[in-house]
Amino acid sequence: MTASPRIERLRQRMAETGTDLVAIGPSSHMVYLTGVDPHGDERPVMLLVSQTYAGFLMPALNLDAARKNSDLPMIPWSDSDGPDAALAQVLEAAGIDRTAPSVVLDETMRADFALLLLDALPGARRRFTGDTVSFLRARKDEDEYRRLRASQLLNDKAMQAGFAALKPGVTERDVASVIRSVYLENGARPQFDLVCFGENGAFPHHHTGDTVLKAGDAVLLDIGGRLGGYPSDMTRVAHLGEPSAEFAKVHAIVNTAVEAALAAVRPGAKASAVDDAARGVIAQAGYGEFFLHRTGHGLGLDIHEPPYITATSDTVLEEGMVFSIEPGIYLAGRFGIRLEEVVIVRSDGPEILSELPRDTVIV
């Protein structure tokens, strides 16, 4: 059986990193490698990949559904028998020397699944997927780029619909409902909608609620949907009536921070340099203590995945990496401003996936 291109790339990476076995639970890692997205419960299910084998430990009741998405071998186990014998069979098929194998574990796998495997490999040297599966996922191929771009362009429409719904008397939930309808009407699934009126914008992860929009309020919208299996993410701001001089000043500072971060994005640069560029602008303007989070996060099958754009990240940026740039300033009791772009690293710098300006929308 010929392995998929992604399995083959994983094997190349395993050889480069001295990895004998990669064990993946029901997760986006499994979807990325095989297209299989099994029901996740307490029954152990794993994809095991070695240099000579790729196959599944699979609960019998999920077997037929899983086979619709993959022709990789699947060794089933039943509730009456338990998974131990089936796991031993998979490990034997994978040709794993059980004395001291180098094993990569899916960091999102249930702890009892991981311990089941490690108990079967008592001498295993184990680590997580950072230099194998996650390493590969951080570098998007052309199909992934197209899907991310299409999802982001739909997000532009959803954001514009959210702005159009702003008027005195509407609630945050009302606007969120309008945004969600745009995703659904265009074949996408809503993922999140942070609709923040007034002082709620100063909470970076505000939960959309029943706050009513009134004259003079600032508005922050952080929204995303999932189209073609891939998510979008974007933050923009609006104002009901002309904004104050301070709001305009803070918006300009945050936008300059975005531009500085964009200028720092290039192959070979460290992720920390992008964070430093954005953070430096805000700190120099006197608002450093009000920038409360990292500058960005990767996007792919997951809304948050590597690379992470933080002050401590040594990740070296490469072509094909996709991540957000989203500095913010949050003034408690007043307003918050965050401006977010999603970019892909190209040979000559970043390509922004959205086409929506970052200007404040005046309602």
Describe the protein in words:
Helices cover 34% and strands 23% of the residues. The strands form five sheets. Strands 4-3-2-1-5-6 form a six-stranded mixed beta sheet. Strands 7, 8, 9, 10 and 18 form a five-stranded mixed beta sheet that branches. A three-stranded antiparallel beta sheet has the order 13-16-17, with helices on one face. The protein is elongated and about 70 Å long. 45% of the residues are buried.
CATH class of the largest domain: Alpha Beta
Count of β-strands? 18
Widest β-sheet, arrangement of strands: 4-3-2-1-5-6
How many angstroms does the end-to-end distance come to? Answer: 60 Å
Mean pLDDT: 96
What's the architecture of the largest domain in CATH terms? Alpha-Beta Complex
Using the CA coordinates, give the radius of gyration. Answer: 23 Å
- The global form is elongated
SSE ordering: HEHEEHEHEHEHHHEEEEHHEEEEEEEE
In CATH, the homologous superfamily of the largest domain goes by the name: Creatinase/methionine aminopeptidase superfamily
Low-pLDDT residue spans: none
Share of helical residues: 25-40%
Strand content: 15-25%
Please identify the structural class as seen in this structure: alpha+beta
Number of domains: 2
Count of discrete alpha- or pi-helical segments spanning 4 or more residues: 10
Characterize the largest beta sheet: strand count, sense, and whether it forms a barrel: 6 strands, mixed
Question: Within the CATH hierarchy, at the fold level, what is the topology of the largest domain?
Answer: Creatine Amidinohydrolase
